[in-house]
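Figure 3 (text version): structure tokens given as input.
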């Protein structure tokens, strides 16, 4: 605690293909905090995985480039020392960590495990939920166990592909047909995703996806609307109103999300009250299926032929700029961007307090 303010360790960047997106998110969040209530300690992780720690801020930085902390005196050792200070009886001054890391080494449970070991409260999903939410194959298995309906898919690793390529291609063709979608199992922001219309394209798409991960998913094509729900809470999560993505491309890929600027977010989504309520109920079920905490965005397909709802995935650290779907969903539900940040900090502290009451050993 710094001068009656809550000190937040803001972690961004990361050893991930979504590094630049994380920087944009970190910059937006840093500029949105109420500096009368919070002091912000920036932690930047480079693409090589090195940490840089800045001094506590009482005002936001002026540019994304400043976020890289080129002149920071604190490196990886100092950052680790600050985070683990409490275990040696020292006061690091950090009250709660706020990871704004997308993708591997940040959204997959790794940095959450670091915070757990350091005994620090942190915003968002725990180790298990983060890991399950990153691995789309594991996530889908949890959805199935929870009785959530979803599209058909197959998953396999790089070794299986090398030794059983023909069999896997046949399995995809017989179970899923064309067109189908191929994606890395452990990546976000639609990186590495391809749409395959025939066997040659399928093989090329798998090879492309394996550049990003050692496990690949091939999913059936679903002719449906793409609707998303924000979930907020711990033991008693709440769901936002639904939003709809209308992609500028053939599907909602990286280019449609971040580059061409032509995709449309419709908030609230033009759906009837019954469908909206069903989506909200299923979003909370999906959140609980992966043992979520803090926040997530649940993504659904609503099949055009019969209006059937199919869960696609959950994102345990969704895009968080003021123009991202998750904050916009909550803004239209009645929770402002600043209020959302306050609530996430409260949820992190609440969850940590509950965990400190657990007994370890006899």
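Below: residues designed for each position.
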């Amino acid at each position: 605690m710094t001068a009656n303010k809550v000190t937040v360790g803001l972690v961004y960047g990361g050893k991930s293909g979504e590094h630049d997106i994380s920087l944009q998110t970190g910059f937006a969040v840093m500029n949105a905090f109420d500096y009368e209530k919070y002091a912000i300690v920036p932690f930047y992780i480079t693409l090589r995985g090195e940490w840089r720690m800045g001094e506590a801020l009482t005002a936001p930085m002026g540019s994304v480039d400043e976020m890289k902390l080129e002149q920071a005196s604190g490196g990886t050792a100092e950052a680790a020392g600050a985070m683990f200070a409490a275990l040696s009886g020292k006061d690091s001054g950090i009250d709660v960590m706020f990871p704004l890391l997308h993708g591997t080494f940040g959204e997959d449970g790794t940095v959450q495990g670091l915070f757990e070991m350091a005994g620090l409260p942190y915003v968002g999903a725990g180790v298990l939920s983060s890991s399950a939410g990153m691995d789309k194959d594991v996530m889908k298995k949890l959805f199935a166990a929870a009785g959530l309906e979803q599209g058909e898919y197959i998953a396999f690793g790089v070794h299986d592909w090398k030794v059983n390529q023909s069999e896997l291609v046949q399995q995809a063709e017989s179970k899923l047909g064309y067109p189908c979608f191929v994606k890395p199992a452990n990546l976000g922001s639609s990186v590495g995703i391809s749409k395959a219309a025939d066997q040659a394209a399928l093989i090329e798409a798998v090879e492309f996806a394996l550049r990003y991960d050692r496990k690949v998913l091939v999913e059936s094509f679903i002719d449906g609307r793409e609707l998303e729900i924000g979930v907020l809470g711990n033991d008693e999560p709440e769901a936002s109103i639904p939003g709809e993505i209308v992609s500028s491309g053939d599907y909602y890929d990286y280019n449609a999300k971040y580059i061409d600027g032509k995709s449309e977010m419709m908030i609230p989504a033009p759906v009837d009250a019954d469908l909206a309520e069903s989506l909200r109920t299923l979003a909370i079920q999906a959140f609980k299926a992966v043992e979520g905490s803090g926040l997530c965005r649940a993504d659904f397909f609503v099949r055009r032929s019969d209006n059937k709802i199919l869960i696609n995935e959950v994102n345990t650290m969704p895009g968080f700029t003021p123009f991202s779907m998750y904050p916009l969903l909550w803004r239209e539900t009645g929770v402002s961007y600043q209020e959302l940040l306050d609530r996430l900090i409260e949820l992190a502290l609440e969850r940590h307090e509950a965990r400190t009451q657990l007994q370890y050993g006899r």
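Residues 254-260 have pLDDT under 50 and may be disordered.
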